[in-house]
């Protein structure tokens, strides 16, 4: 499948900012299942951009802009070729071993309700792949999906209590539950063909299955990702894989607008 | 109790009347100087420390939020030959720590060899995936190591703990020496004591040696969290004595993967940062996002090889207590020889057999949290109450992997001023080892911490410990006082 | 390496706050004399004008207190509840000094610390004499601080403290003349009308210019001369002309050290060129109040330009 992505992020500040430093995880890495045909990040003000690869193997762009900045537009456009891999990730760059992804983080602590829910959902499963699929299906069935929205810092435990979930919350719950069952799991941010306009990148989870490798699970669909997905960044949680992490020096508030269109060419 | 039978570094096992032969002259000085005079000098030193503001904050103690660490006037002395042997062990251990960090954040050969259980690394928060794959400028990770040592006999030194993050206390080493030079000048006349005042120069040389690129005049700064930090005195003291700027995070900006410091004439590129801020708070983009102390983009600049951070972020994995028990294997793996400085025997409670032993001998062991520090989260079995032991038993059974245990050692003692005059008190020792691109340097001295309460083995300043000056003699035994006697 | 911007900002503000504390002390002193010690007590009006000079009239009105010596003197000295009191100025001065402790001499730090200590655990100013004693002590400490700055090395640190003091002093003198002149010569009344000796002496006392006046003007106390002295006589250290000149000099010392000149240098020099051509008589004719208002505004713009030029954080 040939997927076109047009992702615009606009920050508007109530007062001009003296400096902005942002870390962008907005560039998909090529694997055997996806290849970027074209990809471009552009910014509407004078800024310096530096590319690097972080400790998790993600392509990272540092963005430095000097003020006064009243607003900044970051736009990402590109085309990616994908193939259906049955949810299994092939040929990704993996600088860290799966075991690292057994760690809990402040965003993925289990809380009270989630462990019992997870244990119940996997009862009777014969192997770890089946357990993961059942966990994914159970999360899908239990949590009506909220539209994707900017990160509010919700933890997996808090999302579980709230009873509803964005794709971000659902992915974090999956990760927390899988790790609680001693299965390495990680957060993935990326894009998914969804028809219409979207208001934030999509998120799902990957878990490591011995003999298969990293396998994707999307609790929003209850299924594994297909060729309609583009993986961009992985991390231990939503914070670690955030598309844009930013700091600014200046007073006032910020307003964030995202316009995202993912479509088949 | 614990002091009975312990080795005294001046009096040996023989008591005040029968010192170790090399320490006869010192023992004489201690005996000949009236107690009241020693008391007076000690008070004068403490008054000076208070005026200088050499204080530390005690956590969880709001009433005495700022205290000075008690100072003891009787020095702790190392003979030249003792010191040379110690140095060999310290250099070997520090080189191994650096090699270990290089390996763990790079190829991870030691894990492939199966010498350390991988989960001790990967599931340990001290292993920082954010900096994995980064090689610091000149391949130096632990530029400043504080290796905590204890002693049980003339030649029996053990490493109690490695400090490869931001070991503190070096200002005490220097200020204690200043005080001793002022208050006990006769000691320096009678003994040839190796000077420690070159430490700031050594540190600056070390910093310069790891500057990225080939700038002959690298800009070096000390980064402090600010004047509310408990170690602020040490930060400003070190910056002043090296003649470099003491900066706060707000003084630094990162642009184009380069770190700059804001001056009145514009930005100046910074090459080397001696940071006294924990990893978590260094860069909100890489570590804790809510940190206000940090410098956004600092890790990107570090990853790009444009700045040296002293010590390197991620070093906590080398001084972690869970890793500590593997240090003999680690030293052997990287140096090819046996560790010259042994570890204290350590039971890893994560191993079922060890746990069983520990639970059976709680009243004889010291139990520590692997991620605790400063004497918190610690059980000293022989002096603990039944309730404390029960509490630790429950904690051990619930989370054994969080604990290690060690036998209670008969720590050496040094004569120390007490209310009842001079008495032996247990001590430990923190020497400071500097590693630059041009090699390893050990400053001839260090920080001796002393447990001021009789029989106590806890030397932490937060729990009633004090400090002493630590002399390294340039030549053994003799000292001019003896040669004077020979001449007369 | 050159001085950190943060250090520079702290030194500049240290200079400003010490100068402000000193000015408020002088103003309180002169007002006590005017109100309590002169043959014809000036009463409420004198205290109201003291508040207006220090931009604290609104804050005081909010307390609902009456305009008596005991209330206003306490408000301007000991009241930590608003930023316009001496105690708050010294608090800010000391905080800034502590942040740059190593850039100061022990003597300079001690002077600040002693002035600050004068106010610790002090609840009231007492009567007129006690108030005069307190302000005398403050003046003593700020004088001591100024002296210690003069004995410091001639470097950026010294210049930045003095720059802050010069900018603050210019603002203070301009406000003082504006408010007092307005009070003494209400609109429509011609300069040279009834001379209230005590009132005009108060102004001179506030800027330590009683003797200078006698030296420079032979014809006795004339409002036009007082205004001339305070605005355009370079000889008087607290005159606008002197502050304007000192600002230019200090900025050029700093420029020589940094190798950079900027917006602040240009503004300060343009201001001095205008000042040299200023004739007091013309200013009075064309509107003193408008002139002073414009001066205060320009001074604030220069302050902002300095902050930009030296990159205060």
UniProtKB/TrEMBL annotation, chain A:
It holds the Pfam family Bact_transglu_N. InterPro entries: Bac_transglu_N (IPR013589), Papain-like_cys_pep_sf (IPR038765), Transglutaminase-like (IPR002931). Residues 159-221 form the Transglutaminase-like domain. Coiled coil: none annotated. It comes from the Bacteria. PANTHER family: BLR5614 PROTEIN-RELATED (PTHR33490), SLL1049 PROTEIN (PTHR33490:SF6). This is Transglutaminase family protein. It comes from Sphingomonas naasensis. The lineage of its organism: Bacteria, Pseudomonadati, Pseudomonadota, Alphaproteobacteria, Sphingomonadales.
TrEMBL record, chain B:
Residues 469-488 are annotated as: Disordered. Pfam families: CP_ATPgrasp_2. Residues 75-451 form the Circularly permuted ATP-grasp type domain. InterPro entries: ATP-dep_Glu-Cys_Ligase-2, CP_ATPgrasp_2, UCP005522. This is Circularly permuted type 2 ATP-grasp protein.
From TrEMBL, chain C:
Residues 3-310 form the DUF403 domain. Pfam families: Alpha-E. This is Alpha-E domain-containing protein.
């Amino acid at each position: 499948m040939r997927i076109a992505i047009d992702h615009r992020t606009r920050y508007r500040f109530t007062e001009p900012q003296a400096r902005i430093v942002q870390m962008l995880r907005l560039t998909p890495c090529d694997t055997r299942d996806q290849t970027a045909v074209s990809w471009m990040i552009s910014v509407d003000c004078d800024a310096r951009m530096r590319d690097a690869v972080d400790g998790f193997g993600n392509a990272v762009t540092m963005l430095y802009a000097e003020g006064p900045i009243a607003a900044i537009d970051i736009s990402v456009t590109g085309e990616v070729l994908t193939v259906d891999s049955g949810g299994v990730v092939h040929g990704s760059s993996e600088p860290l071993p799966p075991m690292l992804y057994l760690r809990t983080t402040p965003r993925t602590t289990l809380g009270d309700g989630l462990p019992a829910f997870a244990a119940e959902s996997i009862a009777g499963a014969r192997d770890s792949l089946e357990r993961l699929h059942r966990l994914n299906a159970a999360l899908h069935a239990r949590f009506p999906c909220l539209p994707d929205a900017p990160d509010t810092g919700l933890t997996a435990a808090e999302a579980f209590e709230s009873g509803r979930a964005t794709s971000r919350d659902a992915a974090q719950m999956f990760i927390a539950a899988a790790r609680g069952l001693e299965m390495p799991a990680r957060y993935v941010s990326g894009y998914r063909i969804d028809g219409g306009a979207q208001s934030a990148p999509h998120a799902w989870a990957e878990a490591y299955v011995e003999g298969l490798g990293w396998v994707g699970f999307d609790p929003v669909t209850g299924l594994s990702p297909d060729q309609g997905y583009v993986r961009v960044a992985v991390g231990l949680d939503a914070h670690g894989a955030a598309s844009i992490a930013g700091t600014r020096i200046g007073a006032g508030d910020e307003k964030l607008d995202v316009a995202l269109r993912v479509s088949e060419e | 109790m614990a002091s009975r039978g312990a080795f005294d570094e001046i009096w040996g096992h023989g008591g005040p009347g029968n010192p170790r032969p090399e320490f006869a002259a010192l023992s004489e000085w201690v005996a000949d100087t009236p107690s009241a005079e020693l008391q007076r000098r000690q008070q004068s030193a403490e008054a000076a420390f208070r005026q200088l503001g050499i204080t530390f904050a005690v956590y969880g103690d709001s009433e005495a939020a700022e205290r000075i660490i008690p100072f003891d006037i009787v020095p702790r002395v190392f003979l030249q030959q003792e010191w040379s042997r110690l140095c060999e062990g310290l250099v070997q251990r520090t080189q191994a720590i650096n090699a270990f960090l290089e390996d763990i954040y790079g190829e991870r050969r030691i894990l492939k060899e199966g010498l350390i259980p991988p989960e001790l690394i990967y599931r340990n928060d001290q292993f920082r995936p954010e900096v994995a794959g980064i090689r610091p400028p000149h391949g130096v990770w632990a530029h400043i190591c504080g290796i905590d040592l204890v002693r049980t006999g003339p030649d029996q030194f053990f490493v109690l703990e490695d400090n490869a993050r931001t070991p503190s206390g070096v200002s005490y080493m220097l200020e204690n020496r200043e005080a001793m030079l002022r208050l006990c000048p006769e000691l320096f006349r009678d003994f040839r004591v190796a000077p420690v005042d070159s430490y700031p120069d050594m540190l600056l040389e070390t910093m310069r040696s790891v500057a990225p690129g080939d700038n002959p005049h690298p800009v070096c700064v000390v980064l402090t969290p600010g004047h509310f930090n408990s170690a602020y005195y040490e930060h400003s003291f070190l910056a002043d004595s090296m003649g470099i700027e003491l900066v706060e995070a707000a003084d630094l900006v990162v642009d184009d993967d380069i770190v700059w410091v804001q001056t009145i004439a514009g930005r100046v590129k910074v090459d080397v940062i001696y940071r006294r801020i924990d990893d978590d708070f260094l860069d909100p983009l890489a570590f804790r996002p809510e940190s206000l102390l940090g410098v956004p983009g600092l890790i990107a600049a570090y990853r790009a090889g444009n700045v040296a951070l002293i010590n390197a972020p991620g070093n906590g994995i080398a001084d972690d207590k869970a890793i500590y028990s593997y240090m003999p294997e680690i030293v052997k793996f990287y140096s090819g020889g046996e560790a010259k400085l042994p570890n204290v025997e350590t039971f890893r409670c994560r191993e079922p057999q060890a746990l069983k032993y520990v639970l059976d001998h709680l009243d004889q062991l010291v139990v520590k949290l692997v991620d605790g520090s400063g004497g918190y989260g610690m059980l000293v079995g022989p002096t603990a109450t039944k309730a404390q032991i029960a509490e630790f038993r429950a904690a051990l059974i619930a989370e054994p992997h969080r604990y290690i245990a060690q036998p209670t050692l008969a720590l050496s003692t040094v004569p120390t001023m007490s209310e009842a005059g001079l008495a032996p008190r247990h001590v430990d020792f923190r020497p400071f080892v500097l590693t630059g691109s041009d090699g390893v340097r050990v400053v001839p001295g260090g920080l001796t911490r002393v447990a001021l309460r009789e029989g106590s083995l806890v030397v932490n300043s937060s729990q009633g410990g004090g400090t002493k000056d630590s002399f390294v003699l340039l030549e053994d035994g003799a000292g001019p006082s003896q040669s004077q006697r020979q001449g007369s | 390496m050159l001085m950190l911007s943060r250090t520079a900002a702290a030194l500049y503000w240290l200079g400003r706050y010490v100068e402000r504390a000193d000015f408020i002390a002088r103003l309180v002193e002169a007002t006590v004399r005017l109100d309590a010690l002169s043959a014809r007590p000036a009463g409420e009006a004198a205290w109201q004008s003291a508040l207006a000079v220090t931009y604290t009239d609104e804050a005081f009105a909010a307390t609902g207190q009456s305009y008596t010596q005991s209330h206003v003197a306490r408000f301007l000295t000991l009241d930590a509840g608003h930023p316009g009191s001496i105690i708050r100025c010294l608090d800010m001065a000391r905080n800034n000094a502590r942040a740059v402790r190593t850039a100061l001499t022990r003597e300079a730090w001690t002077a600040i610390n002693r002035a600050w200590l004068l106010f610790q655990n002090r609840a009231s100013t007492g009567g007129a004499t006690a108030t005069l004693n307190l302000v005398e002590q403050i003046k003593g400490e700020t004088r001591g601080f100024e002296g210690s700055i003069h004995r410091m090395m001639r470097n950026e640190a010294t210049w930045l403290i003095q720059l802050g003091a010069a900018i603050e002093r210019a603002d203070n003198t301009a406000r003082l003349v504006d408010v007092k002149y307005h009070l003494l010569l209400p609109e429509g009344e011609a300069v040279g009308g009834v001379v209230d000796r005590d009132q005009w002496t108060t102004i001179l006392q506030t800027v330590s210019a009683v003797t200078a006046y006698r030296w420079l003007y032979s014809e006795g106390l004339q409002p036009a001369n007082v205004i001339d002295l305070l605005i355009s006589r370079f000889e008087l250290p607290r005159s606008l002309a002197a502050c304007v000149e000192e600002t230019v000099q200090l900025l050029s010392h700093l420029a020589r050290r940094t190798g950079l000149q900027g917006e602040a240098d240009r503004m300060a020099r343009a201001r001095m060129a205008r000042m040299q051509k200023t004739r007091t008589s013309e200013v009075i004719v064309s509107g003193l109040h408008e002139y002073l208002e414009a001066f205060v505004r320009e001074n604030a713009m220069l302050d902002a330009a300095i902050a930009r030029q030296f990159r205060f954080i």
